[in-house]
Design brief:
Blueprint lengths: L14 H24 L14 H25 L6 H16 L12 H12 L9 H6 L6 H11 L19 H13 L4 H25 L7 H5 L2 H8 L9 H10 L4 H14 L7 H4 L7 H23 L7 H7 L7 H10 L5 H22 L10 H16 L8 H7 L6 H9 L5 H7 L3 H29 L4
Helix pairs in contact: 1-2, 2-20, 3-8, 3-10, 4-7, 7-8, 8-11, 11-12, 12-14, 16-17, 17-18, 18-19, 19-20, 20-22, 21-22
Length: 478
């Protein structure tokens, strides 16, 4: 007697799929281990041509391409009743790859000097928004007891204030991020591995929250690996030690709370905006499921704005002419793609084209957010679709932004496990080409980087995003 197959049973993946999954994880790990092994050769004060920069970029690209293949494999594995061993073993590996970078030499990046300095300043009871590192280094006013104290702090750690980028500016980092920095200073002031330890704890919390959120939205928990195993995220957060991962837990908390506890979701999003100001524009999309409940919607909007403003208050009350926040908002421009074109085009009509371009982009992003929040609805549940629209808005922001750093793709990676998109994922690979700029700059080939590398970084992912959008539209999915 032949037993008919159960139509409700889920397929078991083939051995080929399982072996392919572990092979990709092995390749990603090998690339990151290789980067760790060569990091000591990137010695401060030497030229790019003394460094194995081609090997470094190649390892990021190979690991990134392997990570792209992981998306297809997870699509297959997600249909299978999940093996806890597969999930937790992979997550344990991802945390191990992060911890591996403790003690490593940071490759090219040194923004963490400012993080450590801010944390040490706050730990000593001083206001990190009052003095710039240049004030401390030059000891402009030795009659100021606070400045004397900070000068002694710098001198006791090999003139630490000298190492900070843009020393003439006060810190750009928000009060909430300062709390993270000071927690590292409580472990040991001006110690990079202490900061890495704090970041590792935060990443463990992020992975836990992402697993919870994926289950809540009825997504396979395996999708967490898209975030957990991305090479550029691991390198940028634990070797280069950039603070963008601090945004993730607050965004995930807003996803978890939005279904039943919108006021707590408002608090979480307000705190996310207190980490990265741009994330405030996600509010209309996040709360659109509550559009039909005006009282709840308005109270939530008030909470988001109140938490956001209160979280920034210490910084806003300390603004001065040499504020890093003012300089970044009004002047910063580096490794951008579309922004220079927009600014140059407006320059034909206006003298202050940079400010006008920034204002125009802010209006475009705000309008797009409001359109997603009030027009692009799919009631009644809209469970994962709204996260896809957040992803689209974030990618648009990156394409238009006056600054285009590779660690910014961490913002994209927060949303990808919920709405995988190959074009957005490719952006998380091609951004590794940014590191060619150091060698090209040293050979006076900055124009080559601007004209050829930057368009490749952003243009190819954009083409794939637009092609995917066109195909889905033809299918009636929009």
């Amino acid at each position: 007697m032949v037993t008919a197959p159960n139509p409700l049973s889920k397929p078991t993946p083939s051995r080929k799929t399982i072996y392919g999954f572990w092979a990709i994880l092995t390749l990603i790990a090998a690339c990151l281990i290789f980067i760790r092994s060569i990091s000591s050769q990137f010695i401060l004060g030497t030229t790019t041509f003394d460094h194995p920069y081609i090997a470094f970029i190649g390892a990021l690209l190979i690991g990134g391409l392997a990570w792209l293949c992981l998306i297809s494999l997870i699509r297959s594995l997600a249909l299978w009743p999940l093996s806890k061993r597969l999930l937790w073993g992979s997550l344990f590996l991802s945390l191990g790859l992060r911890a591996m970078f403790f003690g490593s030499t940071s490759i090219y990046e040194n923004d963490w000097n400012r993080y450590l300095w801010d944390g040490a300043v706050l730990e000593k009871g001083h206001n990190p928004y009052r003095y710039s590192p240049a004030d401390v280094d030059l000891a402009l006013d030795l009659t100021d007891d606070n400045l004397q104290s900070l000068s002694k702090l710098s001198q006791s750690h090999d003139e630490f204030a000298n190492r900070i980028n843009y020393p003439e500016l006060t810190t750009i980092y928000t009060p909430l991020t300062q709390l993270i920095f000071v927690s590292a200073a409580k472990i040991e002031p001006l110690n990079l591995d202490a900061l890495r330890l704090v970041f590792l704890i935060i990443e463990a919390a992020t992975l836990f929250l992402m697993v919870k959120a994926l289950a809540l939205y009825e997504r396979s928990k395996l999708w967490v690996l898209i975030y957990a195993l991305n090479p550029i995220l691991i390198y940028a957060s634990f070797n280069a030690v950039h603070m963008d991962i601090l945004l993730a837990p607050f965004i995930l908390l807003s996803f978890i709370f939005i279904k039943q506890k919108p006021y707590w979701a408002a608090v979480a999003l307000g705190l996310a905006a207190g980490i990265k100001l741009w994330s405030l524009v996600l509010a209309p999309i996040l709360f659109r499921r509550w559009n039909a409940h005006p009282k709840t919607y308005l109270i939530s909007a008030f909470i988001v704005c109140a938490v956001f403003i209160l979280s920034l208050l210490p910084m806003l009350l300390s603004l001065q002419t040499n504020s890093g926040l003012i300089a970044y908002a009004g002047e910063w421009q580096k490794s951008a793609w579309l922004f220079p074109m927009i600014s140059d085009g407006l320059g034909l009509l206006f003298s202050d084209s940079s400010i006008i371009a920034r204002t125009l982009i802010a209006l475009i992003i705000t309008f797009t957010s409001l359109w997603f929040g009030f027009v692009k609805l799919k009631p009644p549940k809209d469970d994962v679709r709204f996260i896809g629209h957040m992803l689209g808005l974030t990618v648009l922001f990156l394409l238009l932004s006056p600054t285009g750093y590779p660690w910014y793709v961490i913002w994209v990676l927060i949303f990808l496990p919920f709405r995988p998109n190959y074009g957005a994922a490719l952006l998380c690979v091609t951004t590794s080409l940014y590191y060619l700029r150091y060698a090209l700059n040293e050979r006076s080939l900055t124009a080559v980087y601007d004209a050829q590398i930057i368009p490749l970084q952003y243009g190819l992912p954009l083409l794939i995003i637009l092609a995917g959008w066109f195909v889905r539209r033809r299918r009636g999915e929009y």
